[in-house]
Amino acid sequence: MFLNNTHKIILLLGLVLISNIHIHAQKMTRVYGKVIDAQTKEPLPFVNVYFAEKNIGATTDYNGEYEIETQWASNKLVASYLGYKDLYKAVVKGKSQRIDFYLQPDNKLDEIVITVKEKYRNKNNPAVELIKKVVKNKDKNRKEHLSYYQYDKHKKVEFDLSNITEKFRKKKVFKDLQFIFQYVDTAKINGKPYLPVFLEETLSTEYFRKQPEDRKEIILAHKMTGFHDYINEQGVGFITDYLYNDIDIYNGTVMLLSNQFVSPISKIAPVVYKFHIIDTLNINGHNCIQLAFQPRNKQDFAFKGNLYITNDERYAVIKVDMRVSHDINLNFVNDLQIVQEFEYIDNKAWMITRDNIVIDFSFGKKRTGMFARKKLTYDHFKLDQPIPDKIFDGVEQKEEVAESMDRDENYWQQHRLDKLTQKEQNIYQMVETVKTIPSFRRTMNFIMLLTVGYWNSGKIDIGPVNSFYSFNDVEGFRLRFGGKTGEKFSKTKRIEGYVVYGFKDKKTKFSLKTTFSLNQRPLRRVPKHTISAMVQRETNFPGMQMQFINEDNFLLSFKRGEADKILYYDMAKVEHHKDWGSGFSTTLTIKYMQQQAGGNWQFAFDDYIMKKITSSEIITTLRFAPNEKFYEGVDYTVPIITKYPIFQLTYLQSVKGFLGSDYKYAKIKFNFFKRFYFGPAGYLDFETEAGKVFGKNIPYTNLFIHRANQTYSYQLRSYNLMNFLEFVSDEYISLHAEHHFNGFLFNRIPLLKHLKWRAIVSGKGIFGNLTDANNPDITPGLMLFTKDINDVSTTYALGNKPYAEASVGIGNIFKFFRVDLVKRINYLDLPNVSEYGVRARFKLDF
Known about the structure:
This protein is mainly beta and 846 residues long.
């Protein structure tokens, strides 16, 4: 549960040797205070305050206040502002201290008049009028006003270990790796020493057509430093694309680090930001106005920085330099800087030519962290030149040619738009050398054990360790041991399995699965074309359906109420899966299963007990998920959620007599999922599902047993106050909506905003029906509903009212914990139910 939900952050912050080491070699220096006009006694906004001879500093806010905390302070602090004399003040390193500055106007700059109002207002504010003109003209300035455009794009993503001190270098883990520290450099964003450890490069061509509007990116080449044994390279590429989406400030919102930020040139920008005209200056031959901005609420998902706007009738952005507030409700981010530059191409459009992002990640200010850098270079523009329609075939907006990850070095040298620096070349060389050192491999294996749950022992990965021990009321203690083959064994074939022993029921269970790639691509790459075969003897609680979570997870062993009814089953299946392109995939499964009731449960009929139920099913699943990407984990696949919808249709057919099947029936199920973004108010996940069984006299175990949850973990797709086997239907429709406000609500509550909590509300319900032909309370001869030890029925058909739940939750508690108060709306008169419950969930997010 914890690992699967947090994998994207573990990849970013745990991609290195050690990611959570305390640094005590240098003490923290904290300075804070206010910058004031010495004559007017008014606060000065946007003053640069920094340590002399260090590239470490901050900018004052509208109240003239600043704060800096660092381990690399110098003994002098400087306040610098256009129109005023620079002022230096002494600093006591290693202490927390207040330092105020009273700046004197510079008489040499008499022509510059600076006015600071006591209270900021939008009305009659020249800065606000200017940004409104930028917003009004943005449609003619953004590149989408062209009929066609295309250009080449070169992307470099780099990760660096930061906070490299002498004490860090002397750690025992680096005993055999001292040579890597010759590559340590100093970051321009905040002066911290860093060690490059990872580099990804992508070459692509982007195309746009206005009528009908469509766009496509064709990835021609893609490579990264070779941690093949530890990460899914293609999946990391998808995640970096998702976390660092190409930023278009002309959009109303900017997706960054899986959150939606308000652009400084959004229509609602004057409501979210304060603006201030700083100066006029010349940039690349263009007369520009420097417009500073910062969020009204420092904790909102917004930026602070400077826009450089052409001082003409177009009001185009020629450059933007922006960061995030120190107080922003954003996890693990100490600093973030975005710099974009634009050029007027062919006298037709302002096109972005440079795009740099630098982010300083860490789990704490005194811990080893990570710099993440993305540098985009654009060139070879073709504007308003028709593009063949075939380029836009399919619904996927990003496609990768088959040979993209197999390009040789000659190809890269010929096509790179931005040549590798010597430091970047060193990353490739260093990583390849490090991988050959035994101590590094042992360290990485240990990190993989902690973060992913598997231990690499050569060609076999042993795990997951969090499933080795679990328990339940029927089987007692479950002792499990298993593993899978790794890519050293084969990239196109995988064998995985485990053995389990229950100490209470004294029964052995097992699972064995083999998967083959039919398109000869590695199993961890998409598009996939695979076939698999599986045999299994196992148990499960009816209705307990986990998503991306191993049911043997130790934390799921703790259950509320009575969980004494279990299914033992023997199952064999063959499954074929193919990604057809354009977001469309199919899965065909042939499954044989024998089920047997266990614990306080029997397959009871009016006059006999049925020992086993045999079913043989043919299942076809059609999935349409345009522009969907995945991260392929060690033993699971996690979709990376975007704004695009997901449709899934499943049809199941069971034929009586086929492979000994006891019943004939058909099932059809349709699912729709969509994430909606609401700017600063967060996002909403919406899901609806409908299903129907065709057939009669079917035992309820083969109908729809609705997803229930009797653990104390909050499950997104389950009903968290419904009991196992409580409700069954042969036709239903369900609705689920969950809104994440991020910090939109708590950021505005004085006593709570510093906690950086995030509000969540959700509601889910299911309308179901059990037709007379499958209802044992109406039609005799059917399998009877379950009863408890007091002979009271505990399984029901849904009546005229739906089952419904609602919850309110607080997320981001200690940055990784979510707690929900769940209320069961109806069916409260049934036995052994609770109206309220508190559920918790681990979830790391930015």
